[in-house]
Amino acid sequence: MKPAEVLLSVAGVLLAGSIILVNPPAAGGVAGAAIIAYYSMARLSFSPPRLEVLRRIPQRGGTELEPPLLTEVEAKNLSEASGYLVLRETSPDIFARPPLKPR
Description:
The chain is α+β, with helices and mostly antiparallel strands. It has helices spanning 3-21, 24-27, 29-45, and strands at 51-56, 72-77.
């Protein structure tokens, strides 16, 4: 289960207990409402990251004996949150070949 699912499940159980016992403070109804309010505020304050990514691929000649291409990737963080960047190439048009063995 995700942490959000656990929090909302606990809040639901606390609120259900307060409804059944007809006594919100004793059964944790206030705690359940506080958990839901906290979760709502956390969801509203979240903003997705904004990145500007520039990728440069150099031109190739026509022979296969050229060295492998090195692609330049430049990423700028435009959001206020800090973090780390993981690059993963997923294009089906780009492939890697093993190095050539001398004969």
